[in-house]
User: Fold these one by one.
Assistant:
Number 1:
Amino acid sequence: MNDPRLARLATLLVDYSLRLREGEVVRVNSSDAAAPLILAIQRVAIERGVHAYANVALEGLAEILVSEGSREQREFVSDLAYREVDRLDAEITIWSEANTKSFSRADPEARGQVYAAERSLVNRRWQRIGRGEMRWVGTLMPTNAHAQDAEMSLLEYEDFVFRACHVDGDQDPLAHWRAAAEELTARAAEFADAREVRIVGPDTDLRLGVAGRTWQPSYGTHNMPDGEVFTSPVETETEGEIRFTLPAVFYGREVEDIRLRFEGGRVVDADARSGADYLRTLLDTDDGARVLGEFAFGLNYEIDRWTRNILFDEKIGGTVHLALGSGFDDCGSKNESALHWDIICDLREEGEIYADGELVWRAGRFLEAPKPAVERV
Amino acid sequence: MLVDYSVAAREGQQITIEAPSLAAPLVREVYRRILAAGAHPLPRIGIEGMLENLMLEGSDAQLDWVNPARRDDIEEVDGRVVIMAPLNTRSLTRVDASKQARLHRALEPQRNRYLERAANGELRWVLTLFPTQAAAQDAGMSLPEFEDFVYAAGFLDRDDPVAEWKRFGERLDGVEAFLSGISELRVLAEDTDLRVGVGGRTWIGSRGLENFPDGEIFTGPVETSVEGTIRFTYPAIFHGREIDDVRLRFEGGEVVEATAARGEDLLREMVAVDEGARRVGEFAFGLNEAVTAFTREILFDEKIGGTVHLALGTAYPETGSSNRSALHWDLICDLRDGGEVYADGELAYRDGAFVVL
C-alpha cells in the first residue's frame, strides 16, 4: 500500500504537529493495522534526522490480559515503561483498530484495571507535556472496523479521513493548517472577553457563563484532524435546556436523543429516547459529573457527518459540543470528575448562538470571519 | 516449551516477547503462557519494513543510535522470547553491506551485555522461528511441509516434547564429557584440513534452552589456535544475501585468505568489520537428526545432524573465549559424506556421527 495521502499525513504530523528536529526521539504508538502509516512516518523522520521507533500493540494481547491475567498482572506497569516515556521528545498515537468492539464483552472490572494501568502511563505523558518536556499528537489510520462504525466502505472512509486532515488534494496541508491556526486563534481571542454564551435551537435554550475563562484554539498540534475552539464554562451558571440530536457514545454504548435541563450549573433533569438508564448512571458517577467541563465549537467543515468516533465527531463543522464532567485547568475550570463525556449538538439545520446578547452564529456558521488578532488591539 | 522449559518463566518476572507482527498467533500463545506462569509479558513488536527503511535511508547518526529503552530492557528483564517470522528474507538485499555492518556495530554492546547476563544466570533467552511463507520458500518447501519440518525439529510432534528434550540433553552430556578432555580437533573433508585448539575451553550442549529447535554442542576455540583451510559446503547467508562456496585459510587463529565463488566482496567486508571478525568465536557440531534439510535459516541449518559449523566473530563468553566482535556469522560444513574429525589425533567422528560414543 503506497497511498500518497499517507506520506502527506506523515509529513504533516512530523513537520507541523510535532515540529520534530534533528536528533530528537519520537515513538509511534499504534497497532499492527497501522503499519503503512508507521512506515510513512518513519521515512519522513529519517529524512529529518529524527530517531523514530514503533510501540506496537498486537491485536488480541490486551483482551488476553483482561480475560486471563491476575489482578496483579492487569494492574502491573513496568518501571521500564515509565522510564521509556521519560526519555521521549515526542509521541504519536495512531488509533487503528481491527475491531472496535473487542472489549464489549469483557468483565468491566478487569477491563477497568487494565485501563487504569494504561492511564498511569498516559498521565505521565501529560505531566511531561505540561512541563514542556515533550509533544504529543493523536491521529487515526483508517481500518474496516472504523469504516464500519462510520457506516462507510473502507475506500469512502479513507477519503473522508484524509479530506478531514486536508492531505487529499494538491493543496499544501501545512499551509492549510497554518492558516487554520491563525483563524482559530483569532476566533478564540474574540471570545476572550465574553461573559455569556446562549445557544438557541429546537428544544434548546441554554445559557453558559464564560466570564474569566480562557478560550483555546485547537489546530492540529494535539489531534489530526482538528478544528475546534473550546473553553470550560463557569461551574455554577449553566441555565436552561438542550436537546442533542446526534447519539452520544461512551465506551461503545450509545444514548440517543438526550435532553438535559440545567439549574445553577447542574443537570436537574435528564431524559433520552434510548439508553436513559445508562445516561443517569453516568450522571451519578460523582459530584462533578452533572456539571459542564467543556463547551466547544466544531469548525472542521470537511467533517460533515457523524462517524461514532469522537476524534472526528467533536470537530464536525457546524456543531457545538458540551462535555459533562472534568474541565480543563488551562481554561480556568475547577470542575473535577472521573467523567469527561463529550455530547454533540448539531446546529447545522437551525440554531443560533449569541455572545453577550449579540447573534454571532446561525445554522452552523459564524456570521463573520474572525478579525485578525493584531487589529483587535 | 518456550515459556515453561526454555525461559522457565516464574512469578513476578518480566519477560519480553520480541517479534514481528507476522508472528502474531505465536506471540499470543507465548503471552498467554507467560501470564499463566504468573510473570509479566512485555511485548516488543516490530513492523516489517522499518529495518529496511533505516538501513536504506538512515544517516550514520541514525544507524548508530541505540534506543535506550531497549538497552534498559536488556539490563533488567528476566527473560526474552525472541521470535523470527520473516515476510521476505531478501528485503535487505539492496542494503549497503557497510550500513549493515555499522548497525551491527552499534548493537554490539547490547548483544554482548545480554550474553553476559545470560552467562551470569541473570537472564534466560530463547530464539525461535514462526513458520512463514518466506521461510518456507527459502527452504524450498510449501508452508505445510515447512511447518511439519519446524515442529518435528522441535520434537513437538512427539507425545512428550519436554521429556524428549531432556533425553536429548543426556545424550549431549555424553558428547560434552568426551570433548571436554580434548585439546585439539582436526576436521578433514574435501578441500578441508583445519586444526582447532579447544583445550581448557568449555563445551556447551544446546538442549532447547536458548534456541528452539536446538541440538548442537559448541565451544569458543583458543583465539590464536585455528590453522589450515576449510571449505563450506552450504552457502553462507548474511541478511538474506548468499555467498557460495566460501573457502577460508587460517594462520595463528586469523583468516588470512577468504575466497568465494559468488559474493566474495561481501565476504571480505564481513571479515573486515573489526579485529574480532577475523577470528573464530565458535566451533560446533550439529546434532539434531530431525533437521536434515538445508533451509537457508541458520537457526535450523547449524543443527543439521552430521555437520560442523564455525562462527567468525563474537564468542559466547561462557565458553571461555574472549573474542569480541560486532559480527557473529555461522558457516556450515557438511561431514555426512566422508568427513572425519580427529580428537587429539584419534578418529572420533566419521560420516556425520561420533564413532567413539
Note: The CA atoms of residues 142 and 158 of chain A lie 6 Å apart.
Number 2:
Amino acid sequence: MSNPTVEVRIPTILRPYTKNEKLVSADGASLSEVITSLNTNYPGLGERLLENGELRRFINIYINDEDVRFMGSLAASLKTGDSVTILPAVAGGCM
Amino acid sequence: MTRYESLEASLGHTPLIGLPKLSPKTAAGAPRVRLWAKLEDRNPTGSIKDRTAIAMIDDAEKTGKLKPGATILEPTSGNTGISLAMIAKVRGYKLVCVMPENTSVERRQLLEMWGAKIIFSPAAGGSNEAVRLAKEIAVENPDWVFLYQYGNPANTLAHYQTTGPEIWEDLPEVTHFVAGLGTTGTLMGAGKFLREKNPEIAVIAAEPRYGEVVYGLRNLDAGFVPELYDASILTRRFSVGAQDSVKRVKELLEVEGIFAGISTGAILHAAIGIANECVAAGTGADIVFIVCDAGWKYLSTGVYSNDGDADVLEGQLWA
C-alpha cells in the first residue's frame, strides 16, 4: 500500500528551499516520513525543521490545525488529504 | 457583592454564561455537552489583561521595583497596554508601550486617552518585533521598569489565583478549559489551578494564525516562545486562522447575543471543535472558554459589518 499524500504549507522564511512554492505535496504515514519526503524533494529543508532528531524549538507544525507536539510529535500519523502547516513560533494572542 | 471601593477593586469575578443555543445538540438520553463563556470584557478596562496588569504592578510595588512616579515599559498588542495605562494613570506612573504598527486604531486611541506613550514596532514580525524592540529600549533605559508580561511570573500567578478559582467555584463539573495562547499566562495559571483540582480537566490552547506578514521573521532564530510557557500544562493546542475566527465571532453574536473581540472567535472555534468531538464520542462535557474582550476595539477593521469578511484582516495583528 502506498504512503498517504498530504499537502504541506511552507512559511515565507522557508520558501527559498521550495522554489518559492507556498504549498507542496509530500508522502508519509507519519510526520517523520513526511519530513524525510520533503527533504528528498527539497534538499536542506529537513535540517531547518529538525535539530538532533527533534522539532526545532522555534518551529511549530500543525496537522489539520492541531499542534503535532500534542499528537506524538514526529510520530504523529497522517492520512491522505491531511493538511500540514509549518510556521515559525511567534508571539500571538490578545496581548 | 457589587459595591467596590475603587474601579481596580472590581477586578475579576466575571460572569460565566451558558450558551444553550450554541452548545451542540445531543441525542435523547446522551450526556449533555455544554459550552460556557467567561466574559472577561466585564473587567475594569474591558479585557482579561486587567488581571495581568494589576498583578504585575502590585508585585513590582511590593518588591520595591516600582517607585512613585516611575516609568513602566511594556510590549503589547493593545489590551495589556490599555490595562496598564489605566492603572498607571490612577496610581501615578508613566507608561511607554511598544506596539506593532498593524493594530486597530481604537487600541491606539485608548492608550493615548489614558496617557500612554506609544512606540510603534514594524508590522513584519508582529509581536515578536514589539518584544525585541522593548527589550532593547529596556537596556537603554535602565531606570524604566520593564514588567514584561511574557516572562513575569505575576502574570501566571494572577490567573492561578483568580481566573482558575473563579471557574472552579462557578462550575466544579468543568471538563475542558479553552483559552487563547499569547503570553500563555491564562492557560498556564488557570490551567495549573484547574488541573490541581481535577487532573482530568483538559487544558486547550487556541492560538491565532495571522497573515504572512506577521510570520515574516528575519530568520528562524528570531522565533519566540514566551518564558512563561510550560507545555506540560496543555492537553492540546490549535492554530486558528482569521476565516474561522471571524465566522465564530459572528456566530456568537448572532446566536447568543455576545459581542466579543476577534481573538475570542479563535478560542470559540477550538471549543466548538472539542464539543463536537465529545458529542461524537458520546461523552458529556462542560467546556469553559474565555471571552478575552468585547468587539468595540475592532469595529474599525470592518469584520463586524454584514458583508465584512476575514480578508480585511490580512496583514493586521487582529488578536
Note: The beta strands of chain A are 5-9, 23-27, 50-51, 54-55, 59-63, 66-67, 83-88.
Number 3:
Amino acid sequence: MSPVSNIKTLKIDGKDFSARQDETILDVARQNKIFIPTLCDLRGLSTVGACRLCLVEIKGTNKLLPACVTRVEEAMEVTTTSERLDRYRKSILELLFTERNHICSVCVSNGHCELQSLAQRLQITHVHFPYRYPKAQVDGSHPRFVIDQNRCILCTRCVRVCEEIEGAHTWDVMGRGIDANVITDLNQPWGSSETCTGCGKCVHVCPTGALFEKGRSVAEMLKRRGFLPYLTLMREERD
Amino acid sequence: MSFLDMDDALITLAERVDLVYSPLVDAKTFPQDVDIALVEGAVSSEEDLRKIRVVREHSKLLVSLGDCAVTANVPSMRNPFGVSAVCDRAYRENVNLDPGIPDQVVPKLLDRVRPIHEVVPVDVFVPGCPPSASVIHYVLTELIEGRRPELSTRTRFGA
C-alpha cells in the first residue's frame, strides 16, 4: 500500500517549492524568504484574512487570493509581485491611513510601527485618497494601558490573542464597516472590564500605536512579541 | 530649521541656485517662472489656500516638504473637532482679556486642514517630521540636475 502523499508541489514566482498540504501560500513564502506584506497575520494566532495585504495572483483564476488563508495545491502557480498587486496593496495601505487619524510624528509607536514601516517598504510617499479625520476615542481608564482608536487598523490581533492565548475574550469587534471598533467587554471603559486580566498581550501584538503602555511618549512604545511563539510551542508540546 | 541644518552644504548649493523667494528673502510677492518651489506646512486658512494657488501657478516643480505638507500631520488634529469648536477653545474659553473670535488681520480658517496635494497638484513628496538636512540636500541636488529623487528608502512619515 502506498501512503497518500500529503506533500504538494507548486511554483511561486516561477520557482518550484514543495509544502505540506496543510500549509498556506504565506507559510511557504516565509519559509523561503519570499516577502509578502501582511498586517493582521501574526504567527501563533489564528488567521483571519482581514487586511488583504497578502493578496496574490494564482494562475487559472482572475480573483486575487489572500496568501495567509489559501492552502497550497498541487501544481499551483503563484505570483507574489506584479504591478496589479502592488497597486492594490498600496491602495489598501493608503486607505488605512485615511480611515483613522495616524499622526506618525506624535505617535507612541513612531519608528516601531508596522503600518508605518510597511508604507515605507511599499514606497508610499503620500496618500492619494482624501483623509476622513473621524472623531475617535482614547480610553485611558485602565490603570496600565491605553487604547487609542485613532491608530487602530482593525487587524483584530488583540481580539485573537485575548481569546486564543489568554483565554479572557475581553476584546471583540462592534459595529460594521466604517463604524467597526474594537471594544472591551460590553463596550464599556477598559478599566471597568471584569474579564481583563491585565496581562498586556493585546498591547504587545498590536501592530500600531493603538494599544500602548501608560507613560510612553512619542516613539517610546516598543512591542515585545517573544512570548507568543514560546507560549504556542509550550502548549503544542503539552497537547 | 532642518533646511538650515545643511550647514556648509548651503554654500555650495547657493552657487547653483538663485533664491528668489522665502521667509528670509526681502520679496513681498511670489515671482513668476520659479523652477523649484519648496512648500512646507498644511493648507489651514484662506490665506494658505490663496498663496498655494499662486505658488502652483508660478512654479515648474512644486515640492511638498515635510509631513505637514504631505499628510497635514499635527495641524490636521483639529479636523475631527470642527473649526468653530477649535476657535471657541482658543479665543473664548482660554482667554481672559477681551475674548472673541477675530474677524480681521488673522486669516479665516478653512473647515478642514488639508495636505497640499488635496488642493493643488504636487510634483515631489518629501515626508518626514522634519525631513533630515541630508534628505533635503539630496532632493535639491537631484532636482537641480533634472532627476526625480527616489525617497522611499531615505525618509518616511514621522521620520
Note: The beta strands of chain A are 7-12, 15-20, 55-58, 65-66, 77-79, 138-139, 145-148, 171-174, 181-184, 211-213.
Number 4:
Amino acid sequence: MNVASRFRTLPETGDCVQFTLDGVPATAPAGVTVAAALLAHSGAWTRQTAQGAPRTAYCMMGVCFDCLVEVDGTPNTQACMTLLREGMTVRRQTGLRELNGGQRD
Amino acid sequence: MYQRTPEITIIGGGLVGLSVALGLLKAGQRVCVLDGADNDARASQGNFGLIWGQGKGWDFAPYANWTMDALAAWPAFAKQLQDLSGIDVALDQSGGYEFFTDPTEFDAFEAELAQQATHLGNRARYEMLNGEELRSQMKGIGPDVVGASFSPCDGHVNPLRFLRALRCSVQAMGGHVTLGATVSAIRLQPNGGFALALANGETLQTEQVVLCAGLGAATLARDLGFITQVRPQLGELLITEKLGDRLPFLSSTIRQVDEGGVQIGGTKANAGLDDRETLPIMSKLARHAVTVFPALADVRVVRAWGALRVMSPDGYPVYAKSSLHPGAFLVTCHSGVTLAPLHASALADWIMNTSPTPDLEAFDECRFALSHAA
C-alpha cells in the first residue's frame, strides 16, 4: 500500500535527510516533519497505546497525540510537530513512557 | 393501606448530592436528584480524588473522628459502588505522605497531628520521618525534603470514575437524576413541602429537600432560612503524561492516577468564582513536584486546570436541619470524596431521623450564628 500517495508533498528540493527508525537507516525529503517522514516510510504503526493498540499519525496538527514517538531519547514526542533533522534517532513508542531519572538532553 | 413515601429531592448532582441520594435510596426512600448546568462551579469535576485524614480536625474533635469513620468505611463502600455500578473506582488506601521542605512547617504539622491523635485515641495512626529516614526508605526523594508525615489510613480513588460510579449506582437503585435542572428558587408550600422553581420555568413539588449544591447553594440556602455562607477556594493542578512506572508514594500534593498520569496540586487561593489556572501557581506546583521527586523533571505536563473548593466559614462540614421549615436540609463540605461513605449511610439515618440517628450536632450551622449576627 502506498500510503504516501494519499498526501500531497511539499515541493521537492532534492535534498534528503538521513535518520534511523528503530535503529534502521531511513531517508526522507528535507523539510518534512517526523510524522510525514514516518508515514512516507511505510505507513505502519508508530506507537502502541498502554493497551497495546497500534496507532500512527492522524491529525497532523498537534491535537490527537497519536503520533507520539521517541526522538533522540525523549519519549512521547509529537512527531507531527517536530521537524526531521539529519541524524535523528527515532524510535516507535511502545506503551507508556518510563521515568528516566529526570535527565534532560 | 398504601402510603406514599415522602419524596426527597436532592439539589445538586455532585459527589455530595449523589452520595446522600445513594444513602437515602438504600434506606428505601424515593429520591430525585436535580443537577445544574454544565458550566456551574463543579468541585466534583476538578478534585484530586484523595481519601485523606492527616491533620483533619486537629482543632475540632468531631471532624477528626468523623473523618476517621469515613476512612474506615471506604473499602466496603468502594465494593458497594462496584457491585451497583460495575465501575471500579480504583481505591488505593495503602497510606499517604505529606512532604515538607520547610522545617518550621514540618514541626507545626507534627504538632497538629499530635493534637489530632488526642481526639482519635487508639485509632490515631501516623509517623513522622525526617529527610534521612525518608530517603533511606524510599528511593528518589529529593535532597531538599526535610521530612514527611505518613498515615497508613490515607489513600485515593480515580475521581472521575468515582463520580460516574456514584451516578450509576444512584440510577441502579432506582433514583432519578435530572441533568440541566438548575433550581433558581425554593418556595415554601402553605401545607408543608416545597416548590422548586427551575430556571427553565418548570416547577417541581417535593415533600423534603436536601440542599447539596456546593457553591450554588448560596441563594437557595437563604430561601430555606439557612445562614451558612460557603465561599470558593481556588485550587490549581497539573496533569502529566502517563507513566509506565508507578510512583513509590502517594502524597497530598502528588498522586499518580491508576491510569498512569500524575496529578500535582494542593494550592489554595481566594479568587472569587474565577477558576482559571495561573502561570505563577503552575510553575510553583511543578517546582514542588521536582523538589520532592526529581525524576519528574523531564515528565511533560499535558493539562492544567483550576477548580473551586467549597469552604464553609470554618472549613468543616455543615449538616443542618431547618428548624423553621421541617423537611429542609443543608449538606455541604469540602471533603466530598473522603466523607462519601458516611454521606451515603449515616447521613440518611440523620435525614430520616431513624434509629440510630448519628449525633451530628457538632456540625450544625448554629456554630456560625454569633459571627453571622455580629
Note: The first strand of chain B starts at residue 7 and ends at 11.
